[in-house]
Amino acid sequence: MAAGQNGTINGSRLPWSYRLDLQLDRTFNLEFGKDDAKKKTTFLNVYIRVTNMLNQSNLLSVYRATGNWNDDGYLAAAANQTSIQNQLDEQSFRDYYTMKIQNAFNISSPRTIRLGIKFDF
Predict the structure, then answer these.
(1) How far out from the chain centre does Cα 72 lie?
(2) How many degrees, rounded to 5, is the angle at CA 48 between CA 42 and CA 54?
(3) Which of 18, 68, 96, 119 lies in the 20 to 30 Å Cα band around 90?
(4) Alpha-carbon gap, residue 56 to 112, rounded angstroms
(5) What tens digit of pLDDT does each residue of 23-74 get?
(6) 9 in any annotated domain
C-alpha cells in the first residue's frame, strides 16, 4: 500500500445487494361480434408486479469521506465547527444539512406493488 492510504484491499467496494422481483400475469381472449366474419378478438392482460419483494435497502452509493450513504462527515469535522456555530440557528442548520445529504438515490427503492390491465386490439 502507498503511504497515506488506509483500509483493506478492495475495501472501497459496496456490499452485495439483493433484490427479488416478481410478476404474475394472465391473458384472456375476448371476442366481440355475433358473426364469425365480423368477430374481433381482443386480448386482456391482467398483471401484478412486485419490485424489491423483500424490501431490501441496498446501498447504491456512499459518501467518500465516511463510507455512509447518509453522512458526508461535514457536521462532525472539527474544521467546520466554528462555521456551523456561527450560523443564525445552529440546530436548524444541522437539521437542514442532514436532510440535504440524505440522498434517496444512494439507496435502492422500497418495495413497489403494481396492479395493471393491458388491452391489445
Answers:
(1) 19
(2) 165
(3) 68
(4) 12
(5) 999 999 988 877 777 788 899 999 999 999 999 999 998 888 888 889 999 9
(6) no
Mean pLDDT for all residues in the chain = 87
Question: How far is 44 from 120, CA to CA, in rounded Å?
Answer: 7
Instruction: Print the domain residue range for 113.
Output: 15-59+109-121
Q: In the numeric block, which cell numbers belong to residue 39?
A: 368477430
**Residues in contact with 109: Cβ distance below 8 Å, sequence separation at least 6, in sequence order:** 51, 52
Q: Is residue 10 part of a domain?
A: no
- Rounded to an integer, what distance in angstroms lies between the CA atom of residue 108 and that of residue 71? 17
23 and 48 assigned to the same domain:
yes
Q: How far apart are CA 112 and CA 84, in angstroms?
A: 39
Q: Are residues 93 and 78 in the same domain?
A: yes
Residue 6 lies in a domain: no
Q: Report yes or no: 94 and 88 within 8 Å, Cβ to Cβ.
A: no
Helices (H), 5-65: none
**At 85, phi and psi to the nearest 5?**
-70, -20
